[in-house]
Design a protein that fits this description.
heterodimer, A: 149 residues, 5 helices, B: mainly beta, 1 helix, 43% strand, rRNA binding (chain A), Ribosomal_protein_bL20_C (chain A), structural constituent of ribosome (chain A), ribonucleoprotein (chain A), Ribosomal_bL20 (chain A)
Chain lengths: 149, 155
């Protein structure tokens, strides 16, 4: 005799509800208040926490770059150079160190940073001299002084 | 001609030192540094290396972790070629932008190839019944920098 429909005492019951709840609560254990204990509140908090962490992973790069730039600015001001002058002259002398490494050098290798600042300063002065040129007036202009009669 | 605000440039006037004297001074410094390197009078060397599209400031015996796969087995010795800067206590050699391969030699060994901790990527729009959760594990490689060597071939 083959029974085509299942008898009434065979029900499909959820047996691992505890572990499904723990999966969410384990990420909320260090939260403040009832959201570290109650599932309904924890679900919302954990979801927000995950979304914030994904967005923060993208912002971390911007934040760290700003931090490095602040540190390099402080260190170069100690040597008498401003940050735009320092960075632009360093790139013009074909030294391609990124800001993370220059910030680390400024913290842990002060002598090396001083030599980099001196290099940038020298390149800056050479740039000024090159901008002045020969000191002669360009051809085609007969006088810079205008006479009013 | 009368002095106006535009006759002299806004930066203070600079005078560069004499090029012949400068060349002599440079040659002297280079010889001195060469002598120091040949005699081995440097303590711990540090180097700035461009590797895996990142720049690292490394010394000997330190660990580096990269967020990608390296096509080398565990225990392979690797030589890093793009060296940007090498320094010791008394001198630094700055490359423009790279230093020569005959000047510096950086050796490293591959120690470990693992995956990162499971990072969770979640997107959620409120009131739209939209949420996506994705777990990402990036492959990582751990390298140990064995030695940094320099040779006295400056010019």
């Amino acid at each position: 005799m083959v029974l085509l429909s299942a008898p009434r005492w065979l029900r499909s019951r959820l047996t691992d509800r505890f572990w499904r709840v723990q999966e969410v609560l384990k990420y909320a254990r260090h939260f403040r208040g009832r959201k570290n204990r109650c599932y309904k509140l924890a679900v919302r908090s954990v979801r927000r926490a995950f979304v914030k962490s994904t967005k923060a992973r993208r912002e971390k790069k911007r934040f760290l770059r700003a931090l490095w730039i602040t540190r390099i600015e402080a260190a170069s001001l100690e040597h008498g150079l401003k940050y735009p002058a320092f960075i632009s002259n360093l790139f013009k002398s074909q030294v391609e160190l990124n800001r993370k490494v220059i910030a680390d050098l400024a913290i842990y290798e002060p002598k090396t940073f001083k030599s980099l600042a001196a290099l940038a300063q020298r390149r800056r002065q050479e740039g000024f001299l090159a901008a002045l040129g020969d000191g002669k007036e360009p051809e085609g202009i007969f006088s810079r002084i205008v006479h009013h009669f | 001609i009368a002095k106006t605000s535009l006759t002299s440039p806004p930066w203070p006037e600079v005078k560069l030192p004499d090029p012949a004297e400068e060349a002599k001074y440079h040659a002297e410094v280079v010889q001195k540094v060469n002598g120091m390197i040949a005699a081995g009078q440097y303590g711990r060397l540090f180097a700035v290396v461009h590797f895996a599209s990142k720049q690292w400031k490394i010394t000997s015996e330190d660990l580096i972790m990269m967020d990608n796969v390296l096509e080398a087995e565990c225990g392979d010795r690797i030589r890093m070629e793009k060296v940007l800067l090498v320094g010791a206590d008394d001198f630094t050699l700055i490359g423009r932008p790279l230093l020569g391969k005959d000047l510096v030699r950086v050796e490293a060994t591959v120690i470990e190839k693992t995956e990162s901790w499971p990072k969770i990527n979640m997107r959620f729009w409120k009131r739209h019944n939209y949420q996506r959760k994705r777990i990402i594990t990036n492959p990582q490689t751990v390298l140990r920098i064995n030695t940094i060597e320099i040779s006295p071939c400056l010019s």
